[in-house]
Amino acid sequence: AASRAGGGIMRHFDFGLQAQSVRRNHLEVLLREAVQAQRFTLAYQPQIELRSGRITRAETLLRWRHPKLGTVGPSEFVPVAEDLGLMNELGSWVLEAACQQAALFLAKFGNSPSLAINISPTQLRDRKLYGLVASALERWNVPPSCIELEITEGLLLENTRQVIDTLQNLRKLGVEIAIDDFGTGYSSFAYLAHFPVDRIKIDQALVRAISSVKNGDAIIGAIINMAHALDIKVTAEGVETAAHARRLAELGCDEAQGYWFSRPLTAQALENALTPFSWEENPPP
Ligand code: C2E
Ligand code: MG
Ligand code: MG
Ligand code: MG
Q1: Per-residue pLDDT reduced to its tens digit, 185-206
Q2: Which intervals hold domain EAL (predicted)?
């Protein structure tokens, strides 16, 4: 019967594809539950100022561990949350959690590394974003300089008045804006000159080009120089080797993030990493 009624479909039935769609359905159900119950944590990956070797910032990274599924990475569940229309809710949770953590660091150390929060496309398109950020900062009594928003460059190409207004207002408030994964899409310095941006994060694929592509380091150097000419700071992502870290420092890169310096940490581990540095800033009485 199978061969008469379009047997090709039966013979070529793709079990891999079916397994994928089963997992996807499963994820959707469990993710809805998890968002509702706020069953997430944040990891914090230090960003090191290359000139001083100090931790000046940390990127907040969503973590989800389900009792049955195990750990699911944000590269898998963030796009699902986007599709399900859950990203605004999840994003608000991240914003609150990050501000709460900054408030804890402020109470403990008198200062906080700037916490960089990833903002998804739907969050940035939402008119409520500015108000959400402003009220989270107020609720936790955290100065705007303690957080930073990372957005992807694709969004800037949309170039809508509303997105530009939101970014401009956030910056007026004192929240820094970083372009994430710079160099993976249609990166162009032409648009950077017109956008309210404080920092670019050079994508790890480009960082790897330092040693894997002929003249790779000259290319990175040119990007760093062009960014600086526009008064934009540069952070390198995915720095995994000492050689890359050293070369980036020589090329004038401002900050770096990657496994060479530190994996993403729990809040407690970040606090431990900050402790010696903070005693310098606030000597004990
Ligand atoms: P991203 O914002 O570009 O974050 C950097 C990713 O690179 C993180 O993966 C980090 O763990 C990983 N990474 C850091 N250093 C190294 C390194 O030296 N080598 C390698 N190979 N990888 C490194 P993670 O945590 O799995 O996050 C993946 C992506 O998920 C993020 O990319 C971001 O786009 C998204 N994401 C994570 N948290 C959030 C969030 O709170 N909101 C939104 N909207 N997206 C998030
Ligand atoms: Mg990021
Ligand atoms: Mg990135
Ligand atoms: Mg990325």
Answers
A1: 776 777 788 788 999 999 999 9
A2: 24-278
Q: Which of 111, 191, 183, 203 is nearest to 156 (CA)?
A: 191
**Count of other CB atoms within 10 angstroms of residue 259:** 13
> Using only C-alpha atoms, what is the Rg of the chain?
21
Q: Which atom of ligand 1 is nearest to the CA of 150?
A: 2
Helix (H, G, I), strand (E, B) or coil at 111: coil
Question: What value of ipTM does the predicted structure carry?
Answer: 0.98
What is the spatial distance between Cα 216 and Cα 214, in angstroms, rounded to a whole number? 5
Positive or negative, the CA dihedral 156, 160, 161, 166 is negative
Give the residues surrounding ligand 1 with Cβ less than 6 Å away: 45, 61-62, 73-75, 78, 94, 118, 120, 150, 180-181, 204, 237-240, 257-259, 264
Question: Mutate which of 78, 83, 123, 244 to test ligand 1's pocket (most atoms within 8 Å of Cβ)?
Answer: 78
What is the secondary structure of 119-147 as a DSSP string? --HHHHH-TTHHHHHHHHHHHTT--GGGE
CB contact set of 90 (below 8 Å; sequence gap of 6+): 35, 40, 62, 81
Backbone angles phi, psi at 151, to 5 degrees: -125, 155
How many Å apart are CA 257 and CA 45, to the nearest integer? 7
What is the torsion angle, in degrees rounded to the nearest 10, for the CA atoms of residue 235, residue 179, residue 207 and residue 254?
A: -20
Query: Measured between alpha carbons, how far is 136 from 98 in angstroms, rounded to an integer?
Result: 9
List, for residues 76-115, the tens digit of each pLDDT value: 999 999 999 999 999 999 999 999 999 999 999 999 999 9
Task: Pick the residue whose CA is nearest to atom 19 on ligand 1.
Answer: 238
SS3 265: strand
